[in-house]
Request: fold
Amino acid sequence: MFELDEDERVITETAAAFAAKRLAPHALEWDETKHFPTDVLREAGELGMGAIYCGEDVGGSGLRRIDAVRIFEELSAADPALASFISIHNMCAWMIDTYGSQDQRKTWIPRLAGMEALASYCLTEPGAGSDASAVRTKAVRDGDEWVLDGVKQFISGAGVSDVYLVIARTGVDGPKGLSAFLIEKDTPGLSFGANEAKMGWNTQPTAQVIMEGARVPADAMLGGLDGEGAGFGIAMNGLNGGRINIAASSLGGARTAHEKAAGYVRDRQAFGGALIDEPTIRFTLADMATSLETSRMMLWRAASALDAGSPDKVELCAMAKLYVTDACFDVADSALQLHGGYGYLKEYGLEKIVRDLRVHRILEGTNEIMRVVIGRAEAARARAAG
Reply:
């Protein structure tokens, strides 16, 4: 598990080289100008990063979840915000590949794989965030069509993406009444709010997705004839991978922050010597390095469980998301602190990493919700043992 074989090294090194050449030199500028580099995303797609763990029969890369977390660590070492969008795009691609009809897979996966088309995930609403079962967006059957009405909040890629995977209510209240739909960007009745002014993640647009009598054909429902009422399960299963991918995006950003801090204290002279010679500085670096290593191991463990379909995969993915996003945000914050006042300046890149990583503790299920997921699993285990 700890040593990469030749294929794994090639995958990881390819992602690292792309990130270093095409993302890192532009990350600060993209953040400053709020530029969404769709041309660079297409280049990532050409390298197989648009449908990482989708089937090769429809153009996916056919890789594993553990390959994906390594890819996202490398991408986010250059730009956590853009890496995170690619993560969300991959989550949507996987849902289509896994739950879509053959026509849906053949229509969308080849385009998503090359990132010629981009995908956005639409679950959260103004009044339904962590409580996904409280979704109020409605889809009503009208002959051979579904008519959707509702608003989705905090949607990455809104207004730019080509397809929106929307969770909507087709039946009773609660999780059993939800279904998933694929809505194309040019659908009449579909519109988008203004780009949100955010603390971080400035290189990707975030806005409301608004449906006002948006009509889609009946076969736009994900899952075909068996798709009605399956939306909650589709959404939750997609989030398992989304959680470890976003955690990997925290790890890569924190790794860069640690590297910047180590280089800074090595070269910075104070109190008659290099800062790195101060024991308290070394202790901080030691804690940071330990957090990075434990984060990586937790991610690889959870990804391996997801690949294997292990019974505890949901709990392990939640644990990894909880621990890694918390720990890696602390690493980034410590790196900024070690830079002193310079860490607060944009040109050093630390404050961007801190801003970008902060939201990872909120999205794909808040870390408070991760504790709920883990706690339920622990309670069930305790009862079974009794």
Summary: Residues 58 and 106 are 6 Å apart (CA to CA).
